[in-house]
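seq as requested:
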Amino acid sequence: MQTPELLSDPVFHDEEAARLYLQEVRWPDGVVCPRCGSLDGIRPLGGESMGPGWFYCEACKDKFTVRMGSIFERSHIPLHKWLLAFRLMASSKKGCSAHQLHRTLGITYKSAWFLAHRIREARVPTDPPTLGGEGKTIEMDETYLGHAGSHEPDAWVFINGRGWVRRHNDEKMRVLTLVERGGGSRSIHVDRLNSANVFDFLHLNADRDSALNTDQATAFIRPGRAFKSHETVNHSAEEYARRGRDGSKVTTNTVEGFFGIFKRGMKGTYQHCGEKHLQRYLTEFDFRYSYRIALGIDDAKRTEIAIKGAEGKRLTYRRTGSAA
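struct tokens:
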């Protein structure tokens, strides 16, 4: 199987080429029934009334296509447009809005919005490895999502049904992010920043043998004691980098760099986001950041990884609280 590297590749413009490519990505060792998982007794079905790409499983006595059991199921959007959307969202550093997908793919805005959220769902990791480890440094920080920076007293934000309203920092959406220096990132939306939430987040996502760098937020103090070392920088005194007790560099500039990409994408590309969808946008930015920084993977391979993540995932909610 050859990974399509150019946007002119037939995979992104021809339905038969897209179907065959998706079958190779999803079933590299042969067709598998998405209903019962059987490898044996699978035969192709023909006939003009059904169209190409149908298979029959002798084990469960049912028919299926490559769409079934994935985010593509029950979608009327052609597969080649799905794959092009995957490529655009995987290669755009700050995201690709539903309006842009609507114009590029020639589908309705409503369909583009739903398609984009399905693709974000495909990027949710099923068994993510912990960040950091022996000899590695991880950085953690929090930020607020709004149209002003996290250090400004308030911001103008768009709330569905209310329009543009002034929102203070304690009313903004809070984001907690962990970044492995020279590696990947992991982000969550939290209602409150306290030691309990920080401890749970680190317990699931960080290796305790790591060196942890944070700012001096009180919520980081107790969870930081579980790590090999925990050093802080004092932003209130305009300290952003210093040498640690062991001579290592102490800073949170790496995680601040992630926040810079995330905020420019949310403000410049998506412009506003409903709180119920924030975690999925965080997953999107984590995915691109992690595979670009940690593994140095190019756009084509990153697209293929995202497509493989579509297996066994569905979204069925109605369009509410949308972002552009």
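The radius of gyration is 22 Å.
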